[in-house]
Amino acid sequence: MPTALQTSATLHCDMLIIGAGGAGMRCAAEVLEKRPDSRVIALTKVPHPQKSHTATAQGGLAAVDPADPADKIIYHMFDTWKGSDCTADQNVVKKICEAAWEQIIWLENRGMHFSRNQDGKLSKRTFGGHTLNFGERSAFRAVFEADRTGKGIMDTAWGESMKQGVSFLNQCITTELLFNGDQCVGAMVFLQKDGKFVRILSRATVLATGGSGQVFKVTTNCRQNTGDGLAVVLQAGLPVLDPEAVQFHPTGIVGPGILASETLRSVGGILRNKDLEPFMERYAPKMKELAPRDLVARAIETEIREGRGVLNPDHNIEHVWIDLRHLPPNVHAEQIPEVSGFFKKYVNLDPQKELCPVRPSNHYHMGGIPTNISGQVLNRNQDPVPGLYAVGECAAASFHGFNRLGTNSILELITMGKAVGESVLDFLQTAPQKPAEASAEHTFSLFSDYLDARGSGSIGQIRDALRTLMTAKVGVFRIEAGISEAIASLKELKERAQKVSLSHKGLAMNQELVQRWELDNLLAVSMIIARGALERKESRGAHFREDFPDRRDEFNHHTLASMSVFGDVALARRAVDMSVFSAGGNHHEKFNLIERKY
Amino acid sequence: MEKNYQITLKIHRYDPETERSWIQEYRLNAGRILRFVDLFRKINDEQDPSLAWNSSCEHGQCGSCAVRINGKPMLSCELLVENAVAYFNTTCFEIEPLAIAPVVRDLIVDIEKAYEKVDRAKPYIIKAKPQGQTAAEYAITPQELEKYVNATRCINCFCCAEACISSPKAFLGPNALLAGIVRVMDPREQEKAERLALLYGDQGVRRCHSSRACSFVCPKEIDVAYFIALAKTGRFNPQV
């Protein structure tokens, strides 16, 4: 007899937001500011919205200040297009860059504690890839809240949502989207604390589930970023856009993967291998440590692969060194205090006296749930799915194409968060007052299977094998043979996962049960990343194929990957929007297929 | 540099289904720079998948992983094995869930219950001051911001509330007060009266015994007691 599971309650609302990070909360606030009588439920997997991954963003928010005589929106658009390796959608790039400053003011007026200049105005800093006059010189475009800009966004968007009366359900997971015909009418949700399944019927549903960084062994992403939103969408027969577009930051701190910012290299930090050789001289004789992110990441990976890395025995991770010992004490104290602090805290060493261990760390998923410019989720025929929206890192409109510029991600959260709020408001004008009926078709059999499996194996060990595999074969470097091996191994890991018997069968706060579900999500997301990477026989942005090291025009399109049954991947294409180029206005030639050279 | 420690963790456990509480001992071999969250994960992966514990960012930015370690509330993502051994002068550690909210399972507490106090302090601008210009930022000088910016760094890990010697029933708690104080000091906030009423009300600053335990345990090194002291000395309300 399979374990009998049941729906313990049904809730109704106008808008269900799955994921209470920056994007979800900005969207909620928009809807409630305009229609305070709306019933909005926001779900989060973390113990409280404030614990969302948004809160860890450090650097800043790119936005062109209309009062700045030097900067122009079209420069920001160009930088984003070029950074994306000509794979961002230009209609989306235009929309977000044009909407940026208004959203900065929204945040400031609602209490975000931006850093200020002497006039009391918002301070601005430069960031890699952001330039004036189409690459001429660095732009002061990023506003920030010290080194905790994401926290400022999170606190503000959460505070506003709470003020406006959002109902929160914390520490729960969405196991299935509910459909009536082709219309999304809500979701099945597992409340971890109570161990209960509830059905939430909603007139509009917004996926804002964040990233999938836990696919890789070393990542800057939080523990909950297991690609759940993507897996739920795949299971519903909907596609994922550009799954192979995954960004790696060159310098993650060993072992937790915490970001050691570019600043370390810009103030003069030197990368060294196990022989202490300053190896960047061999890869980029002129730029050395200041070469672009992806080039530095590949150089470090090459050193490690060719046996010139160093093994950290505690975390079992190979790395190179960044040498900061020669930097004057005032540089340590004034220019890199936070990162220096991270090395002290997490590696227990003194960067003024000792070498610091770093290696490429998974950072961001450019790919995600395909949406149109209004955040409506698109099906395989590229038609909007009525009632279903996606926003934030889990979504791909696509603003980042195949490579995201620093400071553009949290900008996307707030601009698209608002835009999706507007779309939902429009939709609710005409949608029926009561959400249509639907019930779970998939959740109970899935969870019964988890609870009833009677084989052996450890979830943790399978997860570790998966993350090691993806890092080695589908990480910074990709090659046909390696990706194919990874795909075969993923199938074996899936079989192993299906045998794992849970040590504890109770439902209330059963983390093992949730981790079993997460493992399936990680496997699904890994599979489509690998299949997308295999099919894309070229190198583009963060996707680097050793066997095809150049960008190729025949791949000037997005990938659409569907997978209703594990391993059974169907791939299709979506054209890249080049409407800014084809409109033919001033500077339109900058938006042609240009080289990504800096 | 390679060095391993034989660590003993005595973890306070609770099973909501049987309502049983017990202390379970785990022995593990751990490298010097593993963090306590890594140890919990190691227990899950190698010994006991049923042990429940919370974390999210795992680098001191979210505060989800706060527990009591040998009596001291701290973030388990920030404590390295070799630092713990040096600080507590032992390789044996007793791990308890925070007492600021009911335990859900093992080391996981119902943090929503603890957050109710923060919610009462309204961590947002209740009513913004009218502003001359529309679509512009308020002018706040760096000097003005500097007065309260440290209070804005709070991540609500509740370590301070755990360490506080005042009665949790009678007192709103240090981090909730801090959330209110931020907006008392924020020049954009117009609604000061309601905030001062909370600050100087029954559960407000008068319940603080000035032990400064909050400042001592804060993982973000915020001098929480300083901000509470500002309120106590009547800085925000000359009538008190």
How would you concisely characterize the structure shown here?
The complex is a heterodimer of chains A (598) and B (240). By secondary structure, chain A is α+β, with helices and mostly antiparallel strands. Chain A has 16 helices and 22 strands.
Largest sheet geometry of chain B? 5 strands, mixed
Morphology call of chain A: globular
- Average pLDDT of chain B works out at 95
Percent helix of chain A, as a range, is 25-40%
Average predicted confidence as pLDDT of chain A = 96
Instruction: Walk across the major sheet of chain B and give the strand order.
Output: 2-1-5-3-4
Features:
A: 598 residues; 19% strand; B: 240 residues; 9 helices
Give an account of the 3D structure.
The complex is a heterodimer of chains A (598) and B (240). Chain A has 598 residues and is an alpha+beta fold. Chain A has helices spanning 22-34, 73-83, 90-109, 149-164, 228-235, 263-266, 280-283, 293-308, 329-334, 337-347, 409-430, 443-452, 459-473, 480-499, 511-535, 579-583; strands spanning 7-18, 40-43, 61-62, 131-132, 137-138, 142-143, 167-169, 172-180, 183-191, 196-207, 240-241, 246-253, 270-272, 310-312, 317-323, 356-365, 369-370, 376-378, 384-390, 395-396, 557-562, 570-575. In chain A, the strands form six sheets. In chain A, strands 1, 2, 7, 8, 9, 10, 18 and 19 form an eight-stranded mixed sheet that branches. The model of chain A has no long low-confidence stretch (mean pLDDT 96). Chain B contains nine helices and seven strands, in the order E-E-H-E-E-H-E-E-E-H-H-H-H-H-H-H. A five-stranded mixed sheet of chain B has the order 2-1-5-3-4. The longest helix of chain B has 12 residues, at 174-185. Classes of the chains: A alpha+beta (598), B alpha+beta (240). At the A-B interface, helix 3, helix 4, helix 10, helix 13 and helix 15 of A face helix 1, helix 3 and helix 4 of B.
